[in-house]
Amino acid sequence: MNDTDDRPITFYRLQGCPFCERVARLLEEYDLGYRSRFVEPMHSERDVVKRVAGVRTVPVVVDENTGVTMAESANIVDYLESTYGDGAAASAGGDD
Ligand SMILES: N[C@@H](CCC(=O)N[C@@H](CS)C(=O)NCC(=O)O)C(=O)O
Known about the structure:
Blueprint: E1 9-13, H1 18-29, E2 34-38, H2 47-53, E3 60-63, E4 68-71, H3 73-84, H4 86-92
Parallel strand pairs: 1-2
Antiparallel strand pairs: 1-3, 3-4
Bound molecules: glutathione.
């Protein structure tokens, strides 16, 4: 069975979570391919995200493009903006 998937960002989220919606909007805005993984509503049962990121809160983003795993919506927003937003073009414009 071949289960390859070329969307390199995995987004751990919860239905109706405003912090997750903020991240989702940015992923959509930057047209980034991502997989959603909806976590258990019960905080104590979120072992998957705990294993991946060391926390039980969502949102969490795992970006295979850069090897970054990140929690906290404000940090994720900053990360996405600086990696994929306008700031990325500015800071990538380096050497030549
Ligand atoms: N400061 C966090 C808050 C995230 C948060 O509170 N997420 C809720 C779902 S909307 C959650 O996972 N709650 C479980 C908990 O607080 O342990 C962020 O901005 O990402």
